[in-house]
Amino acid sequence: MQITFWGVRGSYPVPGAATVRYGGQTSCVEVRAAGGETVIVDAGTGMRALGNKLLREATRPQHYHVLLSHVHWDHIQGLPFFSPAYIAGTRISIHALLTAADELHQVIGGITRHEFFPMSLEAVPAQFEFHQVEPGVELDLGPFHVMPIALNHPFGAVGYRIDGDGSSWAYIADTAPFDRVLHKQHFLAGPEVLTDDDRIALEAMRDALVRRLEGVDTVVYDTHFTEDEYRRFPHYGHSTPDQALEICVAAKVRRLVLYHHAPSHGDDQMDRIAEEALRKGATMGVEVLTSFEGMSLPIGPDADAEAGGAAAAATGASSDAGKGQP
Amino acid sequence: MKLRFWGVRGSCATPGREFLRYGGNTPSVELVTDAGQRLLIDLGTGATELAKQLMGAEFGAGKGALPILLTHTHLDHIQGLPFFTPFFIKGNEIRILGANPTSGSSLEATLQNQLSPHYSPLSGLENLAAGVSIETITAGQAIAVPGFEILTAPVPHGSMWTTAYRITADGKTVAYLSDVEYPSVDEPLPAAVELASGADLLIHDAMHADHDYDLRRGWGHSPARAGVVVAEQAGAKKLALFHHSPDATDDMIDEVVARTAGRTAVPVFAAAEGSYLDI
Questions:
Q1: Complex prediction ipTM
Q2: Can you count the helices (H) and strands (E) in chain B?
Q3: Contact B177, B195 (CB under 8 A)
Q4: What pTM was computed for the model?
Q5: Which residues in chain B have their CB less than 8 angstroms from residue A51's CB?
Q6: Candidate from B101, B120, B220 with C-beta closest to A115
Q7: Which of A124, B80, B156, B159 has the largest count of CB atoms under 10 Å?
Q8: What is the pLDDT of residues B227-257, one digit of tens each?
């Protein structure tokens, strides 16, 4: 199994000289099994380039499974630019959590309503199918065994543990940590005082996450914030590298990948964040990589040699662009 | 009057090395009068960069006032809204002016929908701390914004209409015609020509290179030469090619400019993110 990062940024796409090495596209990861089967996790702006690549590779229309963590814009706005959707015969199955009462097809279809986009998803040639996921209810997609995991994010989000080819990894974005704020179905202007029930709910969510992550080879985690930024915005629904490391240590995860970088974090700051997390992780027995656009990561113990090379590059030792380094 | 391009890209933002010179942010253009009155056109991702600058001044203290004109509500023209930080500061007064979408939905309902709890943690315009007024205009009418005289016209954009603007201040005029496609490139809409009449600067949709246009006719965007035709018929003094295709790299845009400039006496350039113009 191999994962490739097509978008690593959070909130909104960030073009410009400051993001050329780590990349400016929003959340999108391609998962590929040894047999070539592909699943896409999140449909941020990175999905456009992924779609163009998939279209070049495909000899006939394909069936794509897309697992969405949630439907905030930065995780879905690549969908209308996914070029295979414009090819007749293509099937696109969207799997997503929906916490409100609306129908999933209406919510996803809503991003291409006439006011927002010139062509509706109903009108494109591809056939769309919509499946709601529930935390703890597993699904099998070809060679991939998928476990949705509840996360702590405004109006709800799920992470995914994905097992396949005898190995496993997990996608944990977007989530806040599990101590200070419990995200529910309402807008938070700031952190609210936690009730006893809230604390119990947070603890249960954290325990379930740690339990699901046990034995996972690689965890890709929302590390949007620095510690200082988190202190200022604890109610925004995102975590820090330290918070991600804490979960990975508890779950005895081998390798952590920093992901969902804040739009304000330019390449030089990302180098510093990557280096500090790598150093901290080493003292805790967790290998830390920092995702960048274009990074491909083989999953599983067999992949150690290649992953070691990526880790060295992720320290920012080189500023040259190219495969295997930010 | 000064103008700054904060976003010049159409459809979707284009991070990457091939887009650094012209920029990858989606449309947002700032106009400032000699007296310091400010106006923004469109709220694409480029607006997030302007926001950082505004927050360093009166908007950071909750004392800013800003009118924003929207051409339409396709996502590339509004996707900076949830990240435009002056909205998060109490005391700022921000007006959003635009026509109702052609679909029949209202401007306000559309922006509410953009910020719905599904799509955005802000979960509604009412949660923006600044004072926000959504003002529906009728394309074709003049509108009042302090420091600026503004005329508008509806222009065709695929199956819908967008609003084009003619903005005059300090005796100078800028015409903004983004997201427009005329039934015939050689015969632009008279209303578009009239809006750009004698303009010191015409900013025009140039999504497609002329040689790519035949395959993309009817998609709602113009080839580069459409702006030339409007500029020549309107007697505009300068033409800025705008709303560059997300597939157009810096080198490709250079080529389009060279080819377009070679066929007209009107000075032509491609709008580039971050550039200031003294109008």
A1: 0.96
A2: 5, 14
A3: yes
A4: 0.95
A5: none
A6: B101
A7: B80
A8: 999 999 999 999 999 999 999 999 999 999 9
Which residue of chain B has the CA closest to A48?
Answer: B12
Count chain A–chain B contacts defined by CB atoms under 8 A.
128
* Of the partner residues B23, B80, B117, the one whose CB lies closest to the CB of residue A155: B117
Q: How far apart are CA B210 and CA A285, in angstroms?
A: 58
Mean pLDDT of chain B: 97
Gap between the Cα atoms of A174 and A71, Å rounded: 11
Please answer yes or no on whether B20 and A17 come within 8 Å at the CB atom: yes
Contact B119 A76 (CB under 8 A): yes
The amino acid occupying position B184 is: S
Chosen for mutation from A115, A152, A181, A320 (greatest number of chain B CBs closer than 10 Å) is: A115
Which chain B positions have a beta carbon within 8 Å of A107's beta carbon? 118
Q: Do B16 and A20 touch (CB under 8 A)?
A: yes
Instruction: Measure A256 CA to nearest chain B CA, in Å.
Output: 25
Per DSSP, the three-state class of A198 is: helix
User: Nearest Cα to A75, choosing from A47, A110, A102, A104?
Assistant: A47
CA–CA min distance A198, chain B (Å): 20
Specify the pLDDT at position A326: 82
A chain contacts of residue B114, beta-carbon cutoff 8 Å: 116
The mean pLDDT of A145-149, rounded to a whole number, is 98
Please state, in angstroms and as integers, the Cα–Cα distance from residue A112 to each residue in A107, A121, B45, B149, following that order.
10, 6, 18, 34
Given this model, what pLDDT does residue A314 score? 42
Strand extents, DSSP E, chain B: 2-7, 28-32, 38-41, 65-69, 93-99, 131-137, 143-145, 148-157, 160-169, 172-177, 201-205, 239-242, 268-270, 276-278
Q: Residue A308 and residue A303: Cα distance in Å, rounded?
A: 9
Q: Do B14 and A15 touch (CB under 8 A)?
A: yes
| pLDDT attached to residue A301 | 66
Integer Cα distance of B185 and B52 in angstroms = 39
Q: In angstroms, what CA-CA distances link A89 with A51, A76, A81?
A: 15, 22, 17
d(CA A139, CA A162): 10
Residues A71, B24: C-beta atoms closer than 8 Å:
no
Residues A316, A296: Cα–Cα separation, whole Å: 17
B232's enclosing H/E stretch is helix B224-234
Determine how many CB atoms are found less than 10 A away from the CB of residue B135. 15
Instruction: Indicate the pLDDT class of residue A302, thresholds 50, 70 and 90.
Output: low
Task: Give the model confidence (pLDDT) of B71-100 as tens digits.
Answer: 999 999 999 999 999 999 999 999 999 999
CA angle, B112 as apex, A120 and A234 as ends, to 5°?
Answer: 110
